[in-house]
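Ops channel
N.P.: pipeline sanity check, posting one input/output pair.
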């Protein structure tokens, strides 16, 4: 799944399959400007920063169990969000610091390092990298990913795929080749 925020006409957190299908709203109320998003892949929670409402909130993947972890002026300048074990990590663009914050109650805020400028932060952990023996976008015998001539996107599961074309091309009637 792909999770994303939007704060155009109506602010929301949404999810969809990697090919853009099955778009679903996870949260669409009591938010104004969700700008950073992070996933707890193990426990299936979505965290986000709303810079306008100056809050950090969390819900489960279905939009339930919503609660606020932090609220106030200290949230206004947070950029990016990453989860690792009991903490979330973010960048404070006001004092140029990477912060570590207890993700269960918003306390234990510690500045870990200073950076001149950053907009995103990521934490990589082996156990969150799903291991799949085979998937629908593996190269076929002719070297084309998933049998697609340009782009292969996983669909509703790792066993299903959708082919797409680069800009300027259209998908052929076979659903795999681009013209």
């Amino acid at each position: 799944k792909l999770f994303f925020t939007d704060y155009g006409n109506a602010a929301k957190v949404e999810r969809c399959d990697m090919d853009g299908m099955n778009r679903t709203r996870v949260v669409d109320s009591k938010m104004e400007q969700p700008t950073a998003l992070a996933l707890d892949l193990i426990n299936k929670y979505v965290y986000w920063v709303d810079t306008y409402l100056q809050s950090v909130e969390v819900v489960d993947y279905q939009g339930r169990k919503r609660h606020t972890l932090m609220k106030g002026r200290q949230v206004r300048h947070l950029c990016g969000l990453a989860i690792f074990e009991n903490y979330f990590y973010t960048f404070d663009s006001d004092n140029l610091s990477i912060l570590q914050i207890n993700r269960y109650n918003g306390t234990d805020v510690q500045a870990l390092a200073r950076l001149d400028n950053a907009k995103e932060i990521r934490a990589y952990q082996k156990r969150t990298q799903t291991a799949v023996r085979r998937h629908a976008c593996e190269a076929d015998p002719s070297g084309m990913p998933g049998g697609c001539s340009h782009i292969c996107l996983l669909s509703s599961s790792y066993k299903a795929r959708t082919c797409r074309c680069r800009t300027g091309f259209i998908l052929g009637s076979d659903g795999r080749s681009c013209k």
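N.P.: looks fine end to end. The radius of gyration is 19 Å.
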